[in-house]
Q: What sequence folds into this?
């Protein structure tokens, strides 16, 4: 859902044989997120020489004693000053063990929608807190959004430890508070790391200032955390993106969103429910016998059905549900409020259909997860709606499949993205007891 990264074009310089981790950073204003990202890039030797020289020159011009690492991520601010709006900045870097796509999200409360954008494709989120302030309301807000989006791994970076004299007790108090908040949301995979982004402690290199801490540095953890989901355990989902027609050839191109498909597999084309068989799987390098998510392939089918863009190819007995109306949770991304009766377009995988907001059921308090009544959803608000669509969609609950369980709500007149949506209620299994 929402914004994605074209890795092949933007990060083609990275070694394709190394694992990829997509992660996002989030934190309150002035927690030092820009400095942390700059330190991570600098100390992992991921900054080009000319870029580093420019930052060193800018730091001297500002009268700084050393390199202001936050300037490595200030391109986003400079672009905004020129009147260009970019909600999430993506950074690309690599180490011998792994390659990374980092979604750097703004920290202001009014940009909650931006964290939704940045974390929607992330497997891990790094949350920052100021060691002097601890877990604050914005930390809980970002934590709740990460839980809502089904992010698998969380890191709390307790920054500015140098300003509390690397106090173990200050760190432990924050770690306990964070663990309680995370586990109340059903998140058990989380670590807490004491860091000083300005000095470099425990970001890339282990710190002698925290002898009481025996855990990984931030980069060590990013390199070691499990990546991806075992495709064999997932139901296969292949959204058709393009129909390839040529003399004596008809194939259906797209990216396998989840699961595994093999030649000679029986399949069902949704939402029509047409049954057929895969006779060939074509790739750029030639024909293969098997494909795993997220490979891009072209499928050839045994029968010449009317299959088109937006159809979903799946295995029998693993079909998603087909619905003309469904409950959903949405995050409002536009300044235009969303109300019952609004006519919209729904973009689900590769299909776009007309729809209407049948009703707005509730507004979510992002800290307490309590639901309150609502007649509309305003910018940055998250709430529940009932959607009705003009043509049936083959959907999964977001909790079981992040791609087929997500969608965009689009203005039918000007094409503006109004909201990001999740099928079902992802918090239903995460609510505090």
A:
């Amino acid at each position: 859902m929402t914004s994605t990264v074209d890795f092949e074009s933007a990060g083609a310089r990275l070694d394709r044989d190394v694992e990829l981790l997509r992660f996002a950073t989030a934190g309150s204003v002035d927690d030092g997120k820009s400095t942390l990202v700059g330190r991570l890039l600098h100390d992992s030797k991921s900054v080009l020489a000319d870029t580093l020289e420019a930052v060193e020159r800018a730091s001297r011009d500002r009268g700084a004693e050393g390199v202001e690492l936050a300037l490595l991520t200030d391109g986003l601010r400079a672009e905004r000053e020129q009147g260009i709006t970019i909600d999430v900045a993506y950074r690309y870097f690599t180490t011998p063990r792994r390659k990374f796509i980092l979604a750097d999200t703004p920290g202001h409360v009014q940009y909650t929608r931006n964290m939704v954008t940045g974390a929607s494709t992330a497997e891990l989120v790094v949350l920052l807190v100021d060691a002097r302030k601890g877990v604050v309301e914005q930390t809980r807000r970002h934590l709740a959004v990460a839980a809502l989006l089904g992010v698998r791994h969380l890191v709390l970076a307790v920054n500015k430890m140098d300003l509390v004299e690397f106090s173990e007790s200050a760190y432990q108090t924050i770690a306990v508070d964070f663990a309680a908040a995370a586990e109340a949301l059903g998140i058990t995979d989380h670590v807490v790391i004491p860091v000083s982004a300005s000095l470099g402690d425990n970001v890339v290199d282990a710190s002698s200032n925290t002898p009481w801490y025996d855990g990984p540095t931030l980069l060590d953890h990013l390199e070691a955390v499990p990546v991806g989901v075992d495709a064999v355990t997932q139901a296969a989902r292949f959204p058709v993106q393009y129909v390839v027609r040529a003399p004596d050839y008809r194939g259906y191109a797209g990216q396998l969103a989840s699961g595994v498909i093999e030649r000679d597999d029986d399949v069902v084309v949704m939402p029509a429910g047409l049954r057929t068989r895969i006779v060939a799987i074509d790739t750029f390098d030639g024909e293969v016998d098997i494909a795993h998510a997220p490979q891009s392939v072209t499928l050839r089918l045994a029968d010449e059905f009317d299959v088109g863009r937006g159809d979903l190819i799946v295995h029998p007995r693993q079909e998603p549900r087909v619905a003309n109306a469904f409950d959903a949770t949405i995050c409002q991304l536009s300044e235009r409020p969303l109300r019952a009766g609004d006519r919209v377009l729904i973009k689900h995988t590769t299909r776009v259909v007309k729809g209407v907001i049948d009703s707005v059921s509730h507004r979510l308090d992002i800290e307490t997860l309590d639901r309150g009544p609502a007649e509309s959803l305003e910018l940055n608000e998250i709430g529940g709606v009932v959607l009705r669509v003009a043509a049936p969609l083959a959907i999964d609950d977001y909790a079981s499949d992040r791609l087929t369980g997500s969608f965009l709500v689009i203005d039918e007149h000007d094409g503006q993205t109004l909201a990001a949506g999740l099928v079902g209620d992802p918090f239903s299994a995460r609510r505090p007891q």
Notes: The chain has three domains: 7-224, 231-314, 321-423. Helices lie at 7-10, 33-43, 49-61, 75-81, 112-119, 137-148, 168-184, 218-224. Confidence is low (pLDDT under 50) at residues 1-16, 76-86.
